[in-house]
User: Fold this.
Amino acid sequence: RQFLSASSVGWDGSAALVLGAELKFCTLLTAWLVDKGFSYLAGSTVELQDVTGQICGFSTPFVLPGDILSDVSALASFRDIPSLSGSDGAVAMARAEWLAQTHTASADLFVRPNFVQNAALSIRLLTTDEAYWIFTEARLSQKGKEPADDIRIQKLAGSKPFIEVTCGSLDQLGGALDSLVRFVCENKIDRDTFAKLADSLTPFPRP
Assistant:
């Protein structure tokens, strides 16, 4: 069993994982997507079950540090939800209607959010080496790691699209991902096909 530090949302029986950045930014983007109608699969931890990208999510309460609390609280779905507040932020309960029908799904898209002040929107397909490195860094524990775990991650990095989205605002980043996540999940787009579609996805620099 291999666990990753990642957030996840679901669409059409598939999942998108958000990882490779500070957890608070992953949480922020996940909350934005849930507010737009995606199901909530995981807040901070997913279990990677096999080389096909099958995952099991843990839909824990949203942990909201103080510096993202106002952004999340401004989302319509997060207003007036049960929460516990403290000096460092808040913990918000997940609404029952947000939850996916099952905790397991095929992860068909991996997203690394990259918030850079005043940056123009760009979407970059990561190389397989970059994807492998991020998967490795996202492991919650290196103890007991088997060679099969590396093989699993290598195959996943080479078969599923892993993108880095850079921009200066949450609305811009979320807006770019909204239709893209739906498209990839609905059509089960693999990495090679995604790369071939680069010209029709703008802005989309080639790797």
